[in-house]
Write a structure and sequence with these properties.
The chain is 46% helix and 12% strand. It is α/β, with parallel strands linked by helices. Helix 5 (94-108) links the parallel strand 3 (76-79) and strand 4. The chain starts with a helix and ends in a 5-residue tail after the last strand. The structure holds uridine-5'-diphosphate-glucuronic acid.
Length: 460
């Protein structure tokens, strides 16, 4: 249930593994698109996978009203609906709650008794305790339907499992087939066994694939209680965000003392206890997951009157990184009024069209408020960015964005932006030709040789 990044990718991958999958959504337009092979968002490899599943008769799409019929036959229902950030930072569970009630009603209306309990898998990122909350709402749904006279044999049993996802946008298909671990939390062994069977081909790496020729190593299948599985998800994202904010803090100090954070990150990353990934300094993290999950974890701590000071600082460092882009531009350009600034890359990270909490939009709107003209380019997210922020002029060629620009900011390190022709860029730009490299993705020497004033993050 839910055809967002998590639901659709999980559904298409489970179908590829040989299961029979129906992806359910309430958005008819989205379903229509999916049935004709149109993906609702850009995710490499997904279109192909969906087409394969549909072609082999293992994947189809249904409206949420049809869920009653599906509950009859399904071994498991994955709940992969949105859990947006509420006003106080906590996760808004209204979509999860609606789905849980629908499942309850469907269970009560069952005409034929099920042989085994329905396994309800919480795949959406939900706060600790949501497993029990979902159980309660399913029971509510059952009671409501029975109270209204639903006369099915059903009211069959159900079991709730937490199965957090660790997919990265842009490589979600790859991550589904080659995860570092699969986590399942439940109070019942039976439910964990169903999940293990579903994921068996991934755990054993026994599915046929052209995707990755690595030697096959079994994927750890971690089973826990419900609350721990829910916490594992938040702790993973919070740790990764902490790692990024940590290196950004070091980058800021590097800048003051004249050290190079890239060298520092490479060397500290070689310590196996630290690890080299997620140590790229720059304008920090955005997207649909880290900001929302860190806010939700902080909000959860507040419910217990616990001050999560480390997480508060992680978030504060991230806010400061974005502001630094403006500070760097002001240092070189002084006033930004009347200046043209090229924004290279608009999605929150490469290989996705996702603009949720994208630094580009925040930076563009501050530039607008300071009287500058921001001109953005992105290989896939341009149109959507223009719709979200009318003050942002969007063009469809990076060099067009650079034409006449007094400064350029590299915001998203798409391959085509990392490999930009810096001489051509410089020839097109106006003095003082400042290049703020928000992801430390370019070669500073090459930029300077091309005649640009290069400003990285923490690079001496
Ligand atoms: C993240 C996690 O990596 C996934 O494991 C998780 O499943 C997902 O959230 C989720 O909760 O659904 P995602 O948001 O797609 O995935 O993107 P990441 O690749 O983790 O990047 C997050 C942000 O951190 C991006 O804005 C990226 O530019 C930034 N980042 C990443 C850095 O600033 N520095 C780095 O070194 C790495």
């Amino acid at each position: 249930m839910g055809t967002g990044y998590v639901g659709l990718v999980t559904g298409a991958c489970l179908a590829y593994l040989g299961h029979r999958v129906t992806c359910v959504d309430r958005d008819e337009e989205r379903l229509k698109g999916l049935r004709s092979g149109r993906m609702p968002f850009y995710e490499p490899g997904l279109e192909d996978l969906v087409a394969r599943g549909v072609g082999r008769g293992r994947l189809d799409f249904a409206r949420v009203e049809g869920v009653a019929g599906l509950v009859d036959e399904a071994d498991a229902i994955f709940v992969s609906v949105d859990t947006p950030q509420g006003e106080d930072g906590s996760a808004d569970l209204s979509s999860v709650a609606a789905v849980a009630r629908q499942i309850g009603r469907a269970l009560a209306e069952l005409r034929t008794g099920r042989g085994s309990p329905l396994v309800v898998v919480n795949k959406s990122t939900v706060p600790v305790g949501s497993g029990d909350y979902v159980s309660m709402l399913i029971r509510d749904g059952i009671e409501e339907a029975i109270g209204e006279g639903a006369g099915g044999e059903g009211a069959a049993g159900f079991l709730v499992v937490s199965n957090p996802e660790f997919l990265r946008e842009g490589s979600a298909v790859y991550d589904s087939f080659f995860p570092d671990r699969i986590v399942a939390g439940a109070d019942s062994r039976e439910a964990l066994d169903v999940l293990r069977t579903l994921y068996e081909p991934v755990i054993e790496q026994s599915f046929p694939t052209e995707l990755d020729p690595r030697p096959k190593v079994a994927v750890p299948f971690i089973t826990t209680d419900l609350a721990s599985a829910e916490m594992i998800k938040y702790a993973s994202n919070a740790f990764l965000a902490t790692k990024i904010s940590f290196i950004n803090e070091i980058a800021n100090i590097c800048e003051l003392v004249g050290a190079d954070v890239s060298e520092v990150a490479t060397a500290i990353g070689l310590d196996a206890r630290i690890g080299s990934r997620f140590l790229n300094a720059g304008i920090g993290w955005g997207g649909s997951c880290f900001p929302k999950d860190i806010a939700a974890l902080r909000a959860a701590a507040r419910e217990y009157d616990y001050e999560a000071i480390l997480l508060d600082a992680v978030a504060a460092v991230n806010v400061r990184q974005r502001k630094q882009v403006i500070a760097k531009l002001q240092r070189d350009l002084h006033t930004l009024k009347g200046k043209r600034i090229a924004l290279l890359g608009l999605s929150f990270k490469p290989n996705t069209d996702d603009l949720r909490d994208a630094p580009s939009l925040e930076i563009a709107s501050v530039l607008d408020s300071l009287g500058a003209r921001a001109v953005g380019y992105d290989p896939v997210a341009g149109k959507a960015a223009a719709q979200k922020l009318p003050s942002l002029k969007v063009v469809f060629d990076p060099y067009e964005a650079l034409g006449g620009a007094h400064a350029a900011v590299l915001i998203t390190e798409w391959e085509e932006i990392r490999t930009l022709d810096l001489n051509r860029a410089s020839a097109l730009m106006d003095e003082p030709k400042v290049l703020v490299d928000g992801r430390n993705a370019l070669d500073p020497e090459a930029a300077v040789e091309a005649g640009l004033s290069y400003r990285g993050f923490g690079r001496g």
